[in-house]
Design brief:
Strand content: 5-15%
Number of strands: 10
Strand order of the largest sheet: 1-2-3-8
CATH architecture of the largest domain: 3-Layer(aba) Sandwich
Number of helices: 9
Order of helices and strands: HEHHEHEEHEEEHEEHEHH
CATH topology of the largest domain: Rossmann fold
Structural class: alpha/beta
CATH superfamily of the largest domain: NAD(P)-binding Rossmann-like Domain
CATH class of the largest domain: Alpha Beta
Shape: globular
Radius of gyration: 19 Å
Number of domains: 2
Distance between the termini: 31 Å
């Protein structure tokens, strides 16, 4: 394990010179959409400019490393078409999404300007039991486990009508790796091609432990974003064709997997 800072170009150069990696996967970011409205400057410095620093360090050192940038479906924002593809125009709706858009284009720019093997994975929501508890899916599943155990009474939510394309993070990481095994860098939408609302996630999660979600969930306006992204659904056809990749875990299976993991985690902690 090595430590560096996307806000510090010097630390990136020293690390890359020391490690000289064959592949670089940049998943570093201030990645909380809601918090990005509170700290837009920091979000830009890390999530946007940090990528330029990292790419420039690779370029200046002359490393032949292949580079993966974790781009985001949030870049589509106020969507222009459904489903979204690699050719869909972007319309970001948060400082996080705007920063990710810069990162996307600077990755393309290094590929086109210097011939670098750089790829953008435009990943739609990808979840797992390792998801941070500040993200809506894990917020729900941890609350379900605590409510079932009698440790929590209510779950306060924002916009539960928002629709997302949710997949399993484990499978999406495989797609990241596949991108860097190709002869040339490119940009790919990684998604399931299905969309489900937060309300549906709540219903399935509470049902998994035998509870009626409507008895425990309350809407709190403070959890609404200043500008909402209502409907995201991706078309992963290019990834299917070029990477031979397709999602395997269905939405209901993913929800149950996450609830079961949090129920077990809570039980283990209470022993």
């Amino acid at each position: 394990m090595h430590h560096g800072d996307l806000a510090d170009a010097g630390s990136l150069i020293r690390l890359l010179e020391k490690i000289r990696p064959d592949e670089v996967y940049n998943l570093g970011a201030q990645s909380d959409v809601r918090i990005s409205f509170d700290i837009p400057g920091y979000t830009a410095d890390v999530t946007a400019t940090g990528v330029a620093r990292l790419l420039e360090a690779i370029h200046q050192l002359g490393l032949p490393a292949r580079f993966y940038q974790a781009s985001s479906s949030e870049m589509f924002g106020k969507v222009r078409e459904v489903p979204q593809t690699e050719l869909t125009p972007f319309h970001p709706r948060s400082p996080y999404a705007v920063a990710k858009l810069y990162a996307y284009w600077i990755t393309v720019n290094y590929r086109e300007s210097y011939g670098c093997h750089t790829s953008n994975g435009i990943l739609f929501n990808h979840e797992s039991p390792r998801r941070g508890e500040n993200f809506v899916t894990r917020k729900i599943t941890t609350a379900v486990a605590r409510i079932k155990a009698g440790l929590q009474e209510k779950l306060f939510m924002g916009n539960i009508e928002a629709k997302r394309d949710w997949g399993y993070a484990k499978e999406y990481v495989e797609a990241m790796w596949l991108m860097l095994q190709q002869p040339h860098g490119d940009d790919y939408v990684i998604a399931t091609g299905e969309t489900h609302s937060v309300r549906e996630f709540l219903e399935l999660a509470f049902d998994r432990v035998g509870l009626d979600w409507q008895k425990y969930v309350e809407i709190d306006p403070k959890f609404y974003r200043p500008a909402e992204v209502e409907h995201l659904i991706g078309n992963p056809e290019k990834a299917r064709k070029n990477l031979n990749w397709s999602p395997q875990t269905k939405f209901a299976e993913l929800v149950c997997l996450m609830v079961d993991a949090d129920v077990k985690l809570l039980a283990d902690r209470c022993q």
